[in-house]
Amino acid sequence: MNHLNTVPSLAHIQEAHQRISPFIVRTPVLHSDALNKMFHTHLFFKCENFQHTGSFKLRGASNAIFSLDEESAQKGVATHSSGNHAQAVAYAARKHSIPAYIVMPTNAPKIKIEGVKEYGGQIFFCEPTLEARERTAEEVIGKTGATFIHPFNDYRIIAGQASCAKELIEEVKLLDVIVCPVGGGGLLSGTALSTHYLLPHSQVIAAEPALADDAFRSFQSGKVEPVLSTVTIADGLRTSLGEKTLDIMQKYVSSVILAKEESIVKAMRLIWERLKIIIEPSCAVPLAAIMDDTSGFFQGKQIGIILTGGNVDLDKLPWQ
Amino acid sequence: MNHLNTVPSLAHIQEAHQRISPFIVRTPVLHSDALNKMFHTHLFFKCENFQHTGSFKLRGASNAIFSLDEESAQKGVATHSSGNHAQAVAYAARKHSIPAYIVMPTNAPKIKIEGVKEYGGQIFFCEPTLEARERTAEEVIGKTGATFIHPFNDYRIIAGQASCAKELIEEVKLLDVIVCPVGGGGLLSGTALSTHYLLPHSQVIAAEPALADDAFRSFQSGKVEPVLSTVTIADGLRTSLGEKTLDIMQKYVSSVILAKEESIVKAMRLIWERLKIIIEPSCAVPLAAIMDDTSGFFQGKQIGIILTGGNVDLDKLPWQ
User: What is the ipTM metric for this complex?
Assistant: First the structure.
């Protein structure tokens, strides 16, 4: 299949997981007695920072790319992204021996450009506006016949990202709640589906920076609300939802909780210090939102947290 | 037994491993395709940065403390240290429900003092000289009857540290060489013994900062040579060997290789970036020494590297 036209079923998610398994890391789940004591909870951290390319994005990109039919695949794949999705598409395309055309803004971080190059992606630079990115991608697709791989608003992507919560649930088994960061909502909607199918009595809660609360507002209004500010340190979460991800979110996600910027930095540093792992600021948003919660809801609960990636510029740490 | 008076046999090491297993993490072994490609080797990193208390030191301390007879144990244990050994002794003593008396210099890093306090150790501050540390420890032992737990020059400690290479060998099986950092030599001599018993055709190589090359000189001269300078960034390796560790080293270690300071920083950053884990500068010394090696010896080999710990001050990173 080139496309998946319905909300992924459990069978679709299992099929996706099987398809991508040879190419992804079954990432470990870590915990820390000190953090559990500090938050009066049992926290289980699913470490997608250890995934190839440094983030969960490889799961969705691999599923989308490996499920292309032979003719489409030979023409290659394209996307526009300045972040982890670009690296994931380039990496998965190389594993599939097909070309990857990546449109990147001229101001993309050097480290991300290097990453895409390292994985063999062909880069097309454009002005740093969404319009220029989309136009350049269309031009590249017009010339090459490549298939566009959307970073989140695509059921193949969602089914791939769902494999992450599936692994977490298979490993930990009893979880009262899974807290997942939300940007475009690909990981969140995949997590919500896997949890709905495999742990139906558990809740999925989305965590978002208070400074980029578009998912919170979209969840309330029922339509995709734009991001109004991109100043949050959680650079992976500055994206609006898509129609598909919002739809799944409204059906299967319990609530959206918000995290203050200072709590995001504090939570990020706590995870570095206590788990001894490198995570991006976006990953720290769930723990930060738990930190900011005053309802007592999380006390004593078994909580799964998805750590989405570890691509950080070590020269610019947020506590410096 | 309160003491082990001979070089640990395989049975001693197995017994130590069984004794401490319920209290330690069986730490994961990580690898990175990118690092393998960069160094033309197959590198297997044993991650003791994920050990409780953040370092391998817990293995030796637990073995020494858990093998005390009941009467000695009740009087508690004592040590002097400003580093990872202090935290390990405090943690293991609490697990054994006995008091830990830790002598620390007044200038010990605040984070290490907090660590010892967190694990319930009773701290006795002294002037920051070796003489004051030893005198204060003697006073405390005189008053309490506590047993002194040496950080490395003790066969119980060596047998405990040997469990780390034992796990690495059990997991990876085929290793041509294990490269291990050397400070006091507890981990190194344990690693050399486990490798001698379990992988007799493999080599153990010690890695040391060129700026603190006392083990290199001791290995050549056959007697314990003093550390002449403590300026290396690898703060865990500023210690001289002991008689027991040098003796084992001379029998079972192939060679000592040296690493430049700039290579240590470079290797540390590479491990942070590629493995997405937090390690101390001391851990980076083996990879740095491999980087500095010009003989071609390591090319194509299966190499085990022990990452000793992850207790780093995140406000003072060496590349800043």
Answer: 0.89
